[in-house]
Hints:
Subcellular location: Membrane
Helix content: 40-55%
Number of domains: 3
Distance between the termini: 31 Å
Domain Bacterial sugar transferase: 259-443
Largest sheet: 6 strands, mixed
Number of strands: 10
Keywords: Membrane, Transferase, Transmembrane, Transmembrane helix
Pfam families: Bac_transf, CoA_binding_3
Membrane topology: Multi-pass membrane protein
Amino acid sequence: xxxxxGRYSGYLRPFSYLLDLIIIxxxxxxxxxxxLNIIYYHFFVSVSxxxxxxxxxxYEVYRFTKVxxxxxxxxxxxxxxxxxxxxxLGYFLKFSEPSxxxxxxxxxxxxxxxxxxxxxxFLRRFRVIFGGNFRRVVIVGDGENVSQLADFFNENPDxxxxxxxxxxxxxxxxxxxxxxxxxxxxxxxxxxxxxxSDMENELINQFIDFTDNxxxxxxxxxxxxxxxxxxxxxxxxxxxxxxxLRDIPLDKxxxxxxxxxxxxxxxxIVIVGILSWLTPILAFLIKRESKGPVFFKQRRNGLNYHEFxxxxxxxMRPNEIADIEQVSKNDPRITNIGRFIRKTSIDELPQFxxxxxxxxxxxxxxxxxxxxxxxxxxxxxxFMVRHFVKPGITGLAQTNGYRGEVESDKDIINRVKYxxxxxxxxxxxxxLKIIFMTVFNAVKGExxxx
Length: 450
């Protein structure tokens, strides 16, 4: 998902996956008999390692993760890896040299653990010595949990949190909150921590709305006697419980890798299998009817509000208001061939180049043109939340009747609701369902496809 500064180490975990798989396969070649050095076994140990890691959270190590939790993950990974290896070798190869398997699995886990711990401690020292990989935070509230968290941030710079300010909400709370919001925007704060003991539901909702609309991370500090009504994700900073408002599945590295891998494979199939022969045909038809380029390029907002060039087959005559006004029904700007490719959604196919390049995903919230994004961000509550994930060629909102022109406030409000549901409930099966429904609707024909 460009990332927000200091929010994720985007390339670190993919690098860890690759390094660990290299270690496993090299050791298998060196330590095991030639009878085992076959492609099937190397494929098995690689896939089984990833599947186990996914289930035990082996790569889910964050800046606030305790070392004892890292060792627990290592032990679980080691135990399951040995069991699966014995199961595979005993069933398929009738292998009877257990010492070799123990030696291979043990050396593999030891080397991988050393690499894992080295990276973990290196990042801690990197934050202290070079001041990098920091998140700028503020704490809102007044109480023992607030002072404990403030002390934790100040006394543990290796965790990578830079406490910029405290807001105690004494006196006029409305004025204090407005001051806090202005401060967060002015000083480019990454995360806000709120003490729930100092807030009523109305104030909590104000913070939720503010962070959603400005792409800030919001976390809560519950009192030990307080029961939360919301379904929240808990982490521990030292021994201090911290609750996150929104748990986004695509924030997990394994899910990011699965979705990105699917995007690359799917986009290549479309580019090679369809666009390679369809583009010359459409280029001839488009240019025969009207002068201008074959492709239409438009600036749109994507992940974390970053702008990118979104590509489509040109379906309209060149005009000066293409980046300002949405297409409407019976729009005179649309050409004859344009009407056909819009009705069948063929005009969207060049966006698979955007997917392959990493600006978009096959499935996700549909990106809006920059001028409309700025307008909706000011008028539609939680509109900015949809920018926590990559935009898609198709999305859950589009398969539920909210595609094309925004004719009323209801259209954009419901589109945002579906987008938020998608990013909070993502799964590969949901993506496949949306793709199927998109193809089905395109074949059936849609009322708003114009």
